[in-house]
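Hi there,

I know you've been waiting on this one. I reran it after we fixed the sequence typo, so this is the corrected version. Both the input and the resulting structure follow.
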Amino acid sequence: MELRDDGTVVGRTVLILETVGAAGCVSLAHLTARTGLAKATARRISERLVERGLLCRRDDGYALGARLTRLATAARPPVSAEMAAAPYLQELFARSGEVVFWLAECDDALVLQAVVCGRRRALDAGPGLPPVLTVDRVAAFTAAGRVLLADRADLTERVLASDPRRLTPYSTPSRSGLTRAIDRVRDTGVAVEVEEHTQGWACVAAGIRDRDGDLSGVLGVCGRAGAFRHDLLAPPRRRHGTSARGSTAHAVVTMSRPRPVDR
């Protein structure tokens, strides 16, 4: 669209904003030349925009202001949880080469949304990922389930009250042990289970939260137990003023390349 002066105040204001936005930063002389406005007019409108935070003044000219940037950000269409999780899925798969999954939180359950794996893992007789992971005794022995339980104290009480029975010889053997495992997820933002759900397999998972801090889903990776050094997983870095509960799956992305692990 050609930029031109239509003679109106609004039109000239938009013309200046678009010119500055296209240039990144522009001096008054160049602004006058590019818009065709009189120097006094360009200066007057630009200074009023600076006063309102829509432009800012730098040593080399005018640039877009913080207020305009906030307005532009607010105007962007919302990003779906699936789209937000996609980069993490790809990065996790690139780092691990294992089975990477994304589960969305829905009505006290986790619903499978996406799985990424290579041909080697697709042909592997690994643990099947259920289309829906309900909050029951089984959830207490899965990494994804523990992420959800750590977020919901009411669900934790319900599951532990059912006296979950061990699924494998390596499952956490007591309610107190399961409570400690769920508490660790609250503290670190990461859930790890090794052969507690399916012998020979391990899983690590972390929650992804929306802008309001609510859990929107769980991202994780599972593979052969001997391929994980779960003890080398770095806990999520806590940002100033936030807790681990507000972290995203960044902690999972810190997973190192597969290395043998001694039980």
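Quick highlight: The chain has two domains: 9-75, 81-253.

Best,
R. S.
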